[in-house]
Amino acid sequence: MNWMDHGNRLEIFPPKEFDFKECLIFLGRSEGEILHQIKDGYLYKLIKIKEELILLKIGSEENSIQVVFPIGIPSETTREKVADYIWEWFDLDQNLGDFYEMTRKDAILDQIVHTYYGLRIICIPDLFEALTWAILGQQINLTFAYTLKKRLVEHYGESLTYEGQTFWLFPTHEKIAELEIEDLRKLQFSTRKAEYIIGVAEGMTSGQLTKEKLLQLKEYHQVHQSLVSIRGIGAWTADYVIMKCLHNTNAFPIADVGLHNALKQQLGLERKPTIKEIEKLAVNWKGWEAYATFYLWRSLYE
DNA sequence: ATCCAGGAACTGT
DNA sequence: ACAGTTCATGGA
């Protein structure tokens, strides 16, 4: 991690394969998003570090990400954690140079990575949020998934209002673990989604399911297996979470509808490709399937 | 209206 | 192992 603490602001120096504006475009993809806001080229996000709510205003300079604190300056140790958070959120530990090296020889990705150069997987560092968001997205259109997330956050999340704008935190698993199915049914969650999400919340609150434990597992299939063993988490959700929360670039949600649509479009097909066809296309992507998928998703909007 | 959505569990073979 | 069915609701 490469950054400087200037006391009242942070300056973070990302690797060269990074473009803040590309990341902002991804972050701004939905009107329904409630967990961050974008205004005048700045990204605002509320986070919580050790019981302290911290509003971040994030912008970019030529070679750095600038973070300021509109409400109050946190302590030095907290500022360090903020820098950690930003580094993790934008997946800055990955060496995208290796990914781009691979895509030079790839008929599908070569053009795409050129167009969106510097885009990184925007992560969901909170495991509970990542799992819940994936479950919400199962088999419903994304617009409605955002609506459900908004309702969940506004009912059970913490918030802070600054200059007339309200900023939200995703609810904690402790809070959701206390709910009954009917509580979420009222928000128009299906019984299944309600069961799955409360179940995950209970698993995390009991300490059985933690991000740390998952990160300790050495083999990809071990992580995948332990996630899939949880009710409501299938292969797609496991891969999505491994990609968005656990930073493993081997993750490949191969059954994803968005991926299929992107490939259909890129290849000019009449129909969506089959799983077997995708497996063949993806042979070159070994080790970078998550980024290949993410860039293909990006190619879908605009 | 009709189809489908960033699937998963369940059931039957 | 594998295929078909059910769940559930809104968006386009």
Categorize the overall geometry.
Answer: globular
For this structure, the quaternary state is single chain
CATH architecture of the largest domain: Orthogonal Bundle
Distance between the termini: 33 Å
Please trace the helix and strand order, writing H or E for each element: EEHEEEEHHHHHEEHHHHHHHHH
Question: Fraction of residues in helices?
Answer: 40-55%
Over all CA atoms, what is the radius of gyration?
A: 19 Å
* Strand residue percentage: 5-15%
Which CATH class of the largest domain applies here?
Mainly Alpha
- Class from secondary-structure proportions: alpha+beta
pLDDT < 50 runs, ≥5 residues: none
- Give the count of helical stretches: 15
List the strand order in the largest sheet.
1-2-6-5-4-3
Sheet with most strands: 6 strands, antiparallel
Q: How would you explain this protein's 3D organization?
A:
By secondary structure, the chain is an alpha+beta fold. It folds into 3 domains: 3-93, DNA-3-methyladenine glycosylase AlkA, N-terminal domain (TATA-Binding Protein), CATH 3.30.310.20; 127-244, Hypothetical protein, domain 2 (Endonuclease III, domain 1, Orthogonal Bundle); 257-298, no CATH class. The chain has 15 helices and 8 strands. Strands 1-2-6-5-4-3 form a 6-stranded antiparallel beta sheet, covered by helices on one side. Strand 7 (159-162) and strand 8 (165-168) form a beta hairpin. Helix 5 (127-137) runs antiparallel to helix 9 (191-205), helix 5 (127-137) crosses helix 12 and helix 11 packs across helix 12. The two termini are 33 Å apart. It binds a DNA duplex (13 and 12 nucleotides) through residues 134-135, 137-145, 147, 188-193, 196, 231-237, 240, 253, 255-261, 297.
